[in-house]
Each structure stands twice: as C-alpha cells, then as structure tokens.
Fold each of these.
Amino acid sequence: MGSPVLTIKNISKSYGGKGRAAKVLDDISLDIYEEFISILGPSGCGKTTLLRIIAGVEKPDSGTIESHIGNLKIGFVFQFPTLLPWLTVLDNVALPLRAEGVPREKAREKARRYLGLVGLSGFEDFYPHELSGGMKQRVNLARALAIEPNMLLMDEPFSNLDPLTAENLRSEVLDMWLSGVTTVRAVIMVTHNVDEAVSMSDRIVILTPRPARIARIVTIDIPRPRNRRSEEFNKLVDMVYEYVS
C-alpha cells in the first residue's frame, strides 16, 4: 500500500467529569494510506468524535495524529449542509478561501471551478434556500474541495438525501477521487450504511460499542465499478453486517 498519509496512534477520548465521565474512544490506532476508508459502528460509539479529532476540531485525551506529508490540509463534508443563508452559492464556496487570505477574485474563480466539478455551473448566484437538499450538499462538497485538501473527511454525507440523489452523489464523489481531478489523496467517511461502505471503500474500519475500539478492518478488493448484484458483493455486505452486529 506504500507509505501512510496519516497515522492515528493510541487515541483515547472521554467526555464529562466529576464521577460522570464517559469514555468514547479507547486506544484507537490506524494507518491511513492513499485510499477510501469507511468507519462503521453502533450509534453513539464515537465515529464522529474520531473524525473531528482527525480534523483537529477536537483534542484527544491521549494519543497523537501524525501526518506523513508536508502541509496536511483537510476538507470536511458535514452531515447537514452548513451554508450561510445570506451568501450566494459562489460566496459560500469561496468563504474558506477568503478566510485563508486568498484575494476575492481568485477565491471566486476557484469556487466557480469546484462548483463546475460538482455539477453546479449556472447556480453561482443562487441562495441556499433556492436549492434542493442534494444541491446544497453539492455546494458543501465544493466548499470542502475548494481549499484543495489532500485529505477529505465526510460525516454521513449522503444520509439525509433521497435514495436516487444519494446514489448519484456517491458515484460522483468516487469518480472525482479515482480520476485524480481533485487534490484529495485519502478519504475517510463515517457511515451507518453497510452497502454504501462496501460499494465505495478500499477498507472498512468497524468500531465496537462505546468505548470504541477497532473490532475489525475489512479489505474490499472487488474491482471498481462494483456490481451490487454480484454474489461476491453480497457476501461482503453480509459479512460486514455480521461484524457490526
């Protein structure tokens, strides 16, 4: 698999205090390569907490996150589109670039490019309330990609979309990553959807109930594009369901 992009080493995390502390993560260690990883586990086991620690949004109680590439830059796609309603689609995507000090016109130019990449050319001057749920999530994705990250984190990005929209967006995300049209070298996605994990991932990391430990790592070596009706695919889905339950 080559050299890792990122190493997660002995990460532990608890919440609360004064006799009511709840341990969420317990000694999580994992090497991330240039791959698509899905994280599966029971509700409340700490999947999103782990993602937020990788992103640097939260600090672990112990353990380290070590980057093996210079200037690690992380894009984050949230479960719900966190768009500012008073800004146009273009300005929402340009916002993190402006926060980095990129001049206005250059930021808007980059924003246009990534909106085109997610299929939203022509919607630059629309406002969030004028978009469907799927379109809002495309804006969310464009904004994460516009900062040109080398790692993309996604927290249940398709869970609030209708099945057809979700399926289309899954395919497009996978195509963008595999084709190399973005700067992303590794993707980590939190999901509850076993079928989604098997269809998209190179590896699936399965966590135990809280406090989460890594119960098992499943390698998916079916060639892409994957046929969900194939016996091999369905055997893997059944196996992962067994491990999760």
Amino acid sequence: MLVHRYRHRVRYRECDPMGLVYHTHYLDYFEAARTEALREMGLAYRELEAAGIVMPVVELAVQYRAPARYDDLLEITSRFAGGVPRVRVRIDYEVRRAGEPDLLVTGHVTLCFFDTARQRPVPAPAAVTEVFARALAATGIAP
C-alpha cells in the first residue's frame, strides 16, 4: 500500500455561514492530495492528459464525522491499495487536524483510465504501471 500525506490550511472562503468547512470542499482536498501523491511518485497528471489519458471519477463515497473550521491545518492521508493499477485505481482518504488523532472525514474515490481519442476506458498506461511498480518496490512491497 502506498501512503501519502498532504497538508492544507482551511481558507475563509471554504467555510459556510456556520464557520465550518462546506462539505464539497473535502472533494477538492481529496483531489489535491491524490494529485500531489502522484506527482511525488513521479507521475504528473498533466503529462497523462497530454498523452490523451484522463482519469474520471467512477465512484465516490464520503463519511463526515466532525467538522473542520477556518484556519485549521488539515492533514489528508491518501492510501493507494491494490498494487499496480489495471483499469481502475482506488484511493482511500482520511482527514484529520494536523497532529491530532481524531478523524474528521473519511472517504474513497475510484478513478478509471480513459482514452480521450477512443472515448473508452483503457488499461493503465505503461508510464503509470512503471511509476507504481517503482513506488511499491521502494516501500518493500512486491508490485
């Protein structure tokens, strides 16, 4: 399993009139966390798009446990389970205030690899499988 941690400071504009993070912003946090996780592994999403591959969301679930507030420093943990992706990749998320044990939000997103020219799902490109294989090997996990 590959694990990545991303930090985000809650901005005023992300809060509702009650002073709590508006629920849909957690999806933005998930996206930023996975984008940075992929970048850190050596895979820039922009490069996939330039090659005609996009990764649409095909499944999403979010469980809200406790609210985050303005100026909280959040830590979003992304977990890529399942080894080297084939056609889909699932990412599990946990959101906490940095340095605190209590979960605020959990969720998962499943993405598929989609060829924009052929307009259909495709197996993960070699660039993706190679990056995941290297990252897994670096953690001591066989790909």
